[in-house]
Design brief:
Blueprint lengths: L5 E7 L3 H13 L4 E7 L5 H6 L14 E5 L6 H10 L8 E5 L4 H9 L4 E4 L4 H18 L16
Parallel strand pairs: 1-2, 1-3, 3-4, 4-5
Helix pairs in contact: 1-5
């Protein structure tokens, strides 16, 4: 049975070349159908999610997955903290992308509650492999929370 759902991907990436590689990778991945929205400034992420400022009045679909470049001129960690600190959006999976091999950076990513941290590939084939893996894992295998869920409403575990 083929999945006809079109997944919404929010890519937060300031490098146009990397954005294009990632968009090409999503298009070539046969595991899922997706729309990729690119935001180049990490300060705009919460405005996008809330449909505010330059996004007001425009359809801003809730992402099924957020790919976030962690090292940007304006700290991607701030956007990660804002997403995971907002009860309306904290359940959206956020994959932090980084070229950094510094363990302190990786620790900070997880301390800010990213769902995972992955190293950026060096070439197109690496991006194709990574994106198809992420698509299969996060969009096909992981069971997401119900739509519009915010917090646990029951004390039963």
């Amino acid at each position: 049975m083929e999945d006809s759902k079109v997944y919404e991907i929010l890519l937060v990436e300031d490098n146009p070349a990397e954005s294009e590689l990632i968009k090409i990778a999503w298009q070539s991945c046969k595991e899922v159908k997706s729309n990729v929205t690119v935001i180049t400034d990490s300060r705009s992420v919460t405005a996008y999610l809330h449909g505010e400022m330059e996004y007001e009045g425009r359809p801003t679909p809730r992402p099924d997955l957020i790919l976030l470049d962690y090292v940007m001129p304006v700290d991607g960690g701030i956007a990660l903290t804002e997403i995971k600190g907002d009860p309306d959006f904290r359940c959206i999976p956020v994959v932090a992308l980084t070229a950094s091999r510094n363990p302190r950076d990786h620790q900070q990513i997880y301390e800010r509650y990213a769902n995972c941290c992955v190293l950026k590939p060096n070439d197109l084939q690496g991006y194709l492999d990574l994106i198809c893996y992420l698509a299969d894992f996060w969009l096909k295998r992981v069971v997401p929370p119900p739509p519009n869920s915010r917090t646990l409403t029951s004390g039963v575990f």
